[in-house]
Amino acid sequence: MSADFVAEFLQLSLVPLVVGTLAAVICALLGNFLVLRRQSLVGDAVSHVALPGIVAAFILTGTISTIPMMLGAAGSAIVTVALIELVRRVGRIEPGAAMGVVFTAVFAAGVLALEQTDTSTVHLDVEHALYGNLESLIWLAGDRWGALLDPAALAELPPALPRLAVVFVVVAAFLLAFWKELVLGTFDPGFARAVGARPGLVGVALVVLVAVAAVAAFDAVGSIIVIAMFICPAAAARLMTDRLLPQLAWSVGFAVVSAVAGYVLAGYGPLWFGFPASVSAAGMIATVSGLILLVACLAAPRRRGARA
User: Fold this and answer.
1) Backbone angles phi, psi at 89, to 5 degrees
2) CATH number at residue 237
3) pLDDT tens, 44-65?
4) Residue 63, Cα to own-chain centre: how many angstroms?
5) 70, exposed or middle or buried, with CB in 10 Å at 0-12, 13-18, 19+?
6) Residue 210: which of 224, 225, 228, 230 has the closest Cα?
7) Does 242 fall in a domain?
8) Most CB contacts within 10 A, which of 31, 50, 233, 284?
9) Is residue 140 part of a domain?
10) Is the pTM of this model over 0.85?
C-alpha cells in the first residue's frame, strides 16, 4: 500500500466514513425505540422542533456554536413534549393528531422568531442542512498511519467527529442506565407506571436525546441521513427478529453497511458506470438504507412467516 494512497485515504475518506457511520449508528439505536413506540415520525419532526430552540439559543448567547444550539434544541424538545401531552389530555385527541398540531405550531413560532429578531440576518445554508457536508470533512494532518496515534494530528480532526463521538457515548450510557425503564415503557406503559419505572419521564428523555442527536448530526451529514437512519435500519431490523437485543444488533449492522456502502457508492459508483462526477454521499447513504429496508420487506424471516 503506497504512502500516497494511505495519505489520500486518511485525509479525504476516513473522517467522512467515521462521521457518517457514527451518525447512522446513533440514529439507529434511538430509532429502534421510536419504531417500537409507533413514534417514527418524531425523528422527522425534531428538525422542525429544533428551530425555535436554536433561535432562542442564538438570542441568549449571540453565537451559533454547537453546545448552545444543542442545549436549545433539547430545551425545545422538552417544551414540545409537554405541550403534546397537554393538548392530548385537554383536547382528548389521539397522540398522532396532538403531535402534528404541536410540531406545526412550534415550527411556525420558530419561523416567526427568526424573522422578527436579529437572527434573521444569520446565514442558514439550506443545502448543508439537507445534504450535510460529509465530502468537506478533510483531515489534512492525517498524512500517515502514525497520525492516528499522534495527539497533535488528532487535535486537527474536524469537530464533527469528536462531537458525534461524545453523543454516541451519551446515547450508549442512556440505553445502559435506563434499559429496564425503556423496555417496560415501550411494551407495557401501564405496568411500567405500576412498578414505578417512570415511562413518561424516560419517554421525554428519549425525545430529548433524539433532538440532541439530530442537531449534532445535521451540520455534518444533513437531515436526509438523520431522518432515514431514525427509521430505515430499525424498521428493517424489526422484520428480522422479534427479540429486542438482536433487533438492536441488526439495526446497527444495517446502519454501518448503509454508511460505508453509501459513501463508497457515492464517490466511485458513478465512475464505474462511466459518469464523470460523484453524487451526494448523504443522499446515497439514505438510498442504501432504503434499499436495505426494501429487501427486508420482501425477504426477511418475519415477512416470509407472515405470508405463510
Assistant:
1) -80, -45
2) 1.10.3470.10
3) 677 667 777 777 877 787 766 6
4) 23
5) buried
6) 230
7) yes
8) 233
9) no
10) no
Lookup result for grid cell 439514505: 286
- How big is the CA angle at 66 (ends 61 and 69), to the nearest 5 degrees? 55
Range of the domain at 303: 20-121+158-307
- Closest CA relative to residue 24, chosen from 297, 284, 254, 244: 254
**Terminal Cα-to-Cα distance of the chain (whole angstroms):** 51
Please give the backbone phi and psi of residue 138, each rounded to the nearest 5 degrees, phi first.
Answer: -100, 135
Which stretch of DSSP H or E encloses residue 109?
Answer: helix 95-116
Question: How many domains does the chain fold into?
Answer: 1
Rounded distance between C-alpha atoms, residue 28 and residue 18, angstroms:
15
Alpha-carbon span 237 to 163, nearest angstrom: 27
Q: What's CA 225's distance to the chain center, in Å?
A: 7
Question: Which of 49-53, 226-230, 236-240 has the lowest average pLDDT?
Answer: 49-53
Q: Which three cell numbers stand for residue 149?
A: 496515534
C-alpha span between 161 and 130 (Å, rounded): 19
Task: Establish how many alpha carbons lie within 13 A of residue 247's alpha carbon, considering only the half-sphere containing its beta carbon.
Answer: 22
Tens of pLDDT, residues 165-208: 999 999 999 999 989 888 888 888 787 778 777 777 888 788 88
> What is d(CA 225, CA 249) in angstroms, rounded to the nearest whole number?
19
